[in-house]
User: Fold this.
Amino acid sequence: MNPLRTILIAEDSSADAEMAIDALRDARLANPIVHVEDGVEALDFLLRRGAFAGREDGLPAVLLLDIKMPRMDGLEVLQRIRAEEELKRLPVVILSSSREESDLARSWDLGVNAIWSSLSTSTSSSARSRRSVPSGR
Assistant:
């Protein structure tokens, strides 16, 4: 079993997901990364159901969550996460290119931990050492 907790990315755009993954790799994070394409898949992963019913126990270190996704948008996913006892403390970072104030305000209202408003942000050149998201809660 890998002692590092997974980073879960819920993003329907494969190009945007790849940019996020590249940024994480550039930051030399050693955590495994799982990419899902919509809110339903994100909740299935978190709640270990459907295609993810057999995955190992434990929550990801963080969820990087797009707002605009098919089947279930990121704001609904965030609302459901905060309503679930076993998920409500999961760190969630909204991935958004949206400049719609209402989306961003609603994210904060629902308890998002941070908003990454530009996937094209490059990592600092000082991030040279191998790092990881902490494995503890």
The beta strands are 7-10, 33-36, 62-66, 92-95, 114-116.
